[in-house]
């Protein structure tokens, strides 16, 4: 009976129950899963290198085959590290193989074994060569792989690599029965080959040419564009489906309303703010729901733009909800908005998880009857019992801290409410396109006049006493200081300096200063009390974790010291830096790193020292850390691309998005059917060895 894509692996010859369990643990349950279990690299075993020729291949990865002539585990003389060493001989010479902290290899590699190894040889003394941490597998010498291009797959439990290769090769028999989720028309418009042809080429490449090694072969482009198109089509289908019904409300913006807005404004809007406000006003007056992402660097004035949008909605008889990730940020928004709307008569409320029962009842009744016109809250706003009389606008602050599902919960609380999501984390357009493909993008790329430029410097830990002296002088001049640590308590797994220890040492170093501590594990009322004291100038030095990263606004704070700065992402450093420079004082940000920091990490901090623009910082950060780490979360399925790289392949993402827009415009039912077919395909996970 021929194999089919849906055949369970336990029924494939040679698998059985035990191996099926190991495969299932790796997410492989059907033949279809194996077809999408792509190799992470390839070995060209047609041309193995002779050990005698390695002198010309120093520091270049090579493939070697030979017999193990000695093998033993030991401990290094100086750092007392556990190592396993073996000597490989191919008849033309020998090379030492070294693995660190992998003493268990003594049970797997023994004298007399034939090995195939892949790694970069280095000179380790007079005419001696070694390879550190090479990839390896036992080589029997009579297997079919000799003289071929061999796919190397990620490890699957305790299954032998050779077995996994042969199992995948068997699975390829099912390719003729694999349906292609992209029609001939869509393949032509994307410019890609059919799926079975691409899959076979990825498992059994005829050649390892430059395009293939750069993941630019027709087979790679097929997978990249399919995954990008799947993401963009799913986002677009959902967006269009929500737009089918037109908004029943009518928003009018007349001269009287414009005059009220001018009275509320504490300062003149920048050109960028005016441009973005026009885009938002056009959306509010449209008969389609607004889905807009508002991006702006730290201090660019996003909140005032969102507040103006809220006033436009409220004066047209509808309610507005502002969702923020923390109670500290909710309190700050609430106080700032209350100050600006003081003479407006608009009824404002806040919603947090720490409300007492009486406050909660009053809030729920006020929202239900429409008495409360603007509410600022945390996740508490998403509870089922929270209902609105007429929610017209939902504003989500720090969007990357909320999932799509949470945004949809807020959307469901009104009749096609307009959605405005904001982020102070500058997201490069390439990443914004990947994560927020269903949103229109507005960018405030201009800072308000008078905004202080922050002097940023990098210092090693042995120079920190000079920094402390400078902090003393700043406090003498009336300023306040943040000192940020990456973790709260000491851990055996890290040598980072903990907040608790830092707080004690700061109290000792600054005995005549008022020093307080702030971190995320504190109760909400405790955190609020500390922040209010800091705002009132009753605290000179606030020792904190990154809980202060978002939205904290203390104009008198002009000094930011970040300890173990190399352990933060560049965008997070930029957010922290943005907590100072918010008043009239000259402001400073000092990045302190350990004296033993690696050169590459220090270069990254020095690049940040020179950079002032948040979008430049974000682009660097995205390329260094990748999208998952950049966002500080791996919740987005959009990041699970097997070959696609949203920085490198930005042009392909745009191509996929343009086609998704066109397909949904041509026929929503057809787009929905295609999206279902694409979403039903396996999504190969990237592995640690990718």
Summarize the structure in words.
The chain has 690 residues and is of the alpha/beta class. It has 22 helices and 22 strands. A 7-stranded mixed sheet has the order 6-7-4-3-2-5-8, with no helix packed on it. A 7-stranded parallel sheet has the order 12-13-11-14-15-10-16, sandwiched between helices. Helix 12 links the parallel strand 12 (348-351) and strand 13 (374-377). Helix 5 packs across helix 7 (218-243), helix 7 crosses helix 21 and helix 7 (218-243) crosses helix 22. It is globular and about 90 Å long. 39% of the residues are buried. The model is unreliable at 630-639 and 684-690 (pLDDT under 50).
Distance between the termini: 35 Å
Helical run tally: 22
SS content category: alpha/beta
What is the percentage of strand-forming residues?
15-25%
- The level of helicity is 25-40%
CATH class of the largest domain: Alpha Beta
Number of extended strands: 22
Mean pLDDT over the residues = 84
**Largest sheet, spatial ordering of strands:** 6-7-4-3-2-5-8
What's the CATH H-level homologous superfamily of the largest domain?
P-loop containing nucleotide triphosphate hydrolases
Radius of gyration: 30 Å
* Approximate shape: globular
Largest sheet: 7 strands, mixed
**Count of spatially separate domains:** 4
CATH-derived architecture of the largest domain: 3-Layer(aba) Sandwich
CATH topological fold name of the largest domain: Rossmann fold
Query: Which residue ranges are poorly predicted, with pLDDT under 50 across at least 5 consecutive positions?
Result: 630-639, 684-690
């Amino acid at each position: 009976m021929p194999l089919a894509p849906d055949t369970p692996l336990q029924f494939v010859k040679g698998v059985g129950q035990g191996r099926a369990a190991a495969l299932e643990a790796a997410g492989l349950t059907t033949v279809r899963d194996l077809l999408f279990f792509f190799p992470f690299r390839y070995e060209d075993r047609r041309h193995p290198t002779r050990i005698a020729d390695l002198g010309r291949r120093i520091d270049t990865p090579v493939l070697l085959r030979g017999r193990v002539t000695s093998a033993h585990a030991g401990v290094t003389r100086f750092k007392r590290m556990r190592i396993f060493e073996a000597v490989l001989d191919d008849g033309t010479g020998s090379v030492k193989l070294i693995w660190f902290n992998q003493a268990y290899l003594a049970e797997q590699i023994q004298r007399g074994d034939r090995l195939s190894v892949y790694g970069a040889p280095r000179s380790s003394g007079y005419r001696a060569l070694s390879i550190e941490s090479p990839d390896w597998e036992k080589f029997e010498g009579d297997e079919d792989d000799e003289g071929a291009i061999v796919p190397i797959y990620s490890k699957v439990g305790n299954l032998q690599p050779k077995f996994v290769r042969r199992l995948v090769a068997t699975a390829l028999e099912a390719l003729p029965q694999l349906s292609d989720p992209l029609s001939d028309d869509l393949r032509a418009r994307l410019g890609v080959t059919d799926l079975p042809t691409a899959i076979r080429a990825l498992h059994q490449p005829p050649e390892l040419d430059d395009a293939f090694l750069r993941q630019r072969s027709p087979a790679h482009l097929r997978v990249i564009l399919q995954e990008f198109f799947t993401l963009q089509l799913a986002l677009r289908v959902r967006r269009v489906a929500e737009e089918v019904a037109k908004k029943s409300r009518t928003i009018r913006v007349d001269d009287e309303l414009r005059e009220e807005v001018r009275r509320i404004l504490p300062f003149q809007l920048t050109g960028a703010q005016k441009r973005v406000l026009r885009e938002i006003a056009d959306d509010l007056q449209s008969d389609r729901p607004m889905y807009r992402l508002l991006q702006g660097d730290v201090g660019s004035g996003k909140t005032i733009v969102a507040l103006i949008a809220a006033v436009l909605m409220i004066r047209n008889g509808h309610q507005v909800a502002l969702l923020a990730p923390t109670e500290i940020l909710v309190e700050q928004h609430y106080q700032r908005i209350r100050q600006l709307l003081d003479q407006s008569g608009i009824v404002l409320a806040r919603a947090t998880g720490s409300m007492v029962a009486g406050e909660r009842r009053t809030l729920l009744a006020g929202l239900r009857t429409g008495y409360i016109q603007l509410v600022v809250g945390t996740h508490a706003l998403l509870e089922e019992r929270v209902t609105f009389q007429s929610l017209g606008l939902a504003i989500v602050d720090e969007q990357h801290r909320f999932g799509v599902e949470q945004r949809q919960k807020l959307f469901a609380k009104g009749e096609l409410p307009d959605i405005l999501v904001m982020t102070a984390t500058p997201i490069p357009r390439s990443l914004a396109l990947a994560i927020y493909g269903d949103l229109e993008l507005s960018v405030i790329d201009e800072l308000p006049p008078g905004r202080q430029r922050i002097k940023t410097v990098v210092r090693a830990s042995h120079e920190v006493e000079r920094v402390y002296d400078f902090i003393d002088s700043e406090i003498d001049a009336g300023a306040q200081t943040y000192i940020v640590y990456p973790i709260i308590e000491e851990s055996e797994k890290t040598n980072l300096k903990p907040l608790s220890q830092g707080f004690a040492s700061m109290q000792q170093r600054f005995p005549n200063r008022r020093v307080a501590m702030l971190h995320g594990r504190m109760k909400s009322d405790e955190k609020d009390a500390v922040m209010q004291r800091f705002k009132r100038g009753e605290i000179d030095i606030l020792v904190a974790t990154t809980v202060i990263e978002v939205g904290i606004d203390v104009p008198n704070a002009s000094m930011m010291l970040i300890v173990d700065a190399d352990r933060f992402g560049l965008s997070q450093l930029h957010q922290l830096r943005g907590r100072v420079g918010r008043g009239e004082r000259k402001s400073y940000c000092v990045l302190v790193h350990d004296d033993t920091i690696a050169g590459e990490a220090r270069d990254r901090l020095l690049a940040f020292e020179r950079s002032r623009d948040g979008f430049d910082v974000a682009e660097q950060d995205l390329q260094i850390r990748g999208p998952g780490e950049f966002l500080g979360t791996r919740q987005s399925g959009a990041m699970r691309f097997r070959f696609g790289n949203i920085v490198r392949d930005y042009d392909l993402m745009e191509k996929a998005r343009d086609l998704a827009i066109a397909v949904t415009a041509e026929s929503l039912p057809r787009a929905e059917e295609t999206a279902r077919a694409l979403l039903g395909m396996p999504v190969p996970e990237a592995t640690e060895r990718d």
